[in-house]
Specification:
CATH class of the largest domain: Alpha Beta
Distance between the termini: 57 Å
CATH topology of the largest domain: Rossmann fold
Strand content: 5-15%
Shape: elongated
Number of domains: 3
Largest sheet: 6 strands, mixed
Helix content: 40-55%
Number of helices: 19
CATH superfamily of the largest domain: HUPs
Structural class: alpha/beta
Radius of gyration: 25 Å
Length: 411
């Protein structure tokens, strides 16, 4: 199966500037392609996974990825998909975020020995001469055409700053720069980047009289309509300091049954035949497919040891899932002094200290609605005191609802 067909079958293809031409291009030799990632947060998140996996599949087919960190474009902020202007970050913050991105991208892509490149567009954008840039690059852009793109049209009512209006020109210049320096002829991204990528294609055609390609992937949503990666705590980040490997694992093992096949294709490197077999499982057996998804993806993002620990912890708190014993050590936890437990702790205070409830009022609602469990017993009394009777293997296990667990390790 060719590289383009692999992307199409696995669900990475949405819009393409020239599908037949791109297929021929990728089949014709070792090609260079790129995706940009603006470091506007201190971690990549689930929304970046489609782009990371699509790049990885092309690299595995023998092509050369350029992962472009937007150290320059982040100083402006991409208006795509935003109803208001992004907060402008200090340059020092952008640099620190970029370093975190580099580490996380290396989990997916091989940047050794010419197999891939990790670049920062601040290297060519930060010191641009504005007058020369307008004369040489800006003259190729039509304001009328730029305003026809959905990114800008949706912002005209709420307000579009001049600094944001420059973003598309800068991203187009990135494409031109990479074409000139690395013969890069394919830019990829999410559907919200279509206008920006096409602008870069057009710029290369006008300036260099050469054809390049644009390819975007669809936004991934769950079968229940939720945006992929949204949790009670917010975005599902790839940094273990922000979202523990266990919490990351639990998110994927709890996806709707209807999403399993799609997510196995997108977010694992398993052979398609194996994915078809797993997707055909029904009833209780579908958990085997979900466990495979969670294990494979957690292993890529956080490493094999973290994946094994998360799987073991999950099996321990959900023993009916696979019938195998597990180890609770990877369930999120914190220490609790033994004298405090012996004195007794109010159940509301305990849930707030665990982080399973953000406040006492939230903990009160949780107890009143029957969603609070301590040591396997449902607690429905807000005055309940948790004491030594809740101890199990020198720990107290809390559960919020059916899926979120926390342990207090007694010391």
């Amino acid at each position: 199966m060719g590289a383009f067909e692999t992307l199409r079958v696995r669900g990475f293809v949405s819009q393409c500037s020239n599908e037949a031409g791109l297929k021929e291009f990728l089949d014709g030799g070792r090609r260079t392609y790129y995706i940009g990632f603006d470091p506007t947060a201190n971690s990549l998140h689930v929304g970046h996974l489609v782009q990371l996996f699509s790049m990885a599949h092309l690299q595995r087919a023998g092509h050369i990825p350029i992962a472009l960190v937007g150290g320059g474009t982040s100083r402006i902020g991409d208006p795509s998909g935003k109803t208001e202007m992004r907060r402008i970050l200090p340059v020092e913050t952008i640099r620190a975020n970029s370093e975190r991105f580099r580490v996380q991208m290396s989990r997916f892509l091989d940047f050794s020995a010419g197999k891939g490149l990790l670049l920062d567009n601040a290297d060519w954008l930060a010191d641009l001469n504005y007058i020369e840039f307008l004369r040489d690059i800006g003259r190729h852009f039509s304001v009328n055409r730029m305003l026809s793109f959905e990114t800008y049209k949706m912002r005209l009512d709420t307000g579009l700053s001049f600094i944001e209006f420059n973003y598309q020109i800068l991203q187009a210049y990135d494409y031109l720069t990479l074409y000139r320096s690395h013969d890069c002829r394919l830019q990829m991204g999410g559907d919200d980047q279509w206008g920006n990528i096409v602008a870069g294609m057009d710029l290369i055609r006008r300036v260099e009289s050469e054809e390049t390609f644009a390819l975007t992937s669809p936004l991934v949503t769950r079968a229940d309509g939720q945006k992929m990666g949204k949790t009670e705590k917010g975005a599902l980040f790839l940094d273990p300091e922000l979202v523990s490997p266990y919490e990351f694992y639990q998110y994927w093992i709890n996806v709707p049954d209807a999403d399993v096949e799609k997510l196995l294709k997108l977010f694992t490197f398993l052979p398609l035949e194996e994915i078809t077999r797993l997707a055909a499982l029904r009833g209780q057996e579908i958990r085997v497919a979900k466990e495979t998804l969670a294990y494979e993806l957690t292993g890529i993002v956080h490493g094999k040891e973290a994946a094994e620990g998360s799987r073991s912890a999950s099996r321990a708190v959900f023993p009916s899932g696979g019938g195998q014993a597990g180890d609770l050590k990877d369930v999120p936890s914190k220490p609790l002094p033994r004298p405090e437990l012996e004195e007794g702790i109010n159940v509301l205070d305990l849930f707030v200290r665990s982080g399973l409830a953000a406040s006492k009022s939230e903990a009160r609602r949780l107890v009143n609605q029957g969603g609070a469990t301590v040591a396997g017993k449902s607690i429905r009394d807000i005055e309940h005191t948790v004491g030594p009777e809740a101890l199990e293997q020198d720990a107290v296990l809390l559960r919020k609802g059916k899926k979120r667990y926390f342990r207090f390790i007694i010391e």
